[in-house]
Amino acid sequence: MTVQGFSLDSDLTLDEAMEELVSAEDFLDFFGVPFDQTVVHINRLHIMQRYHDYLSKAGSLDEHDDAARQAVYRQLLSRAYQDFVDSDAQTEKVFKVFRMHEPQTTFVSIDQLLS
């Protein structure tokens, strides 16, 4: 699938244009983020999950216009991709499976101990 970047002159809104995106490469092409195919091939799910995590932390962007949202989406996607250029999936620990064997901290109150 050939994906063209979003244009404010388009008849579609940003959300409508994004509905056609199905792969990590589609998102990267759409937002004009240059990428190495090898990095994406190895880390596509991790990149997209990290992108989702960054979007969740950014909060609601619905009140912004398409141009502002496009800039934020592009910056967050670029950041998510760059995380895996500079590191790897095991180090970044995006998915729970990579965090399962880490030490866990549990809080027990004094009241629970005295009961």
From TrEMBL:
Ribonucleoprotein: is it a keyword of this entry? no
In the UniProt record, the gene name given for this protein reads nifW
Quaternary arrangement and interactors, per the entry?
Answer: Homotrimer; associates with NifD.
Q: What is this protein called?
A: Nitrogenase-stabilizing/protective protein NifW
Q: What is the organism of origin for this protein? A: Geopseudomonas aromaticivorans
One Pfam family of this protein, by short name? NifW
Q: Which family does it belong to?
A: Belongs to the NifW family.
Give the record's keywords alphabetically.
Nitrogen fixation
State the protein's purpose: May protect the nitrogenase Fe-Mo protein from oxidative damage.
Keyword Transferase in the entry? The reply is: no
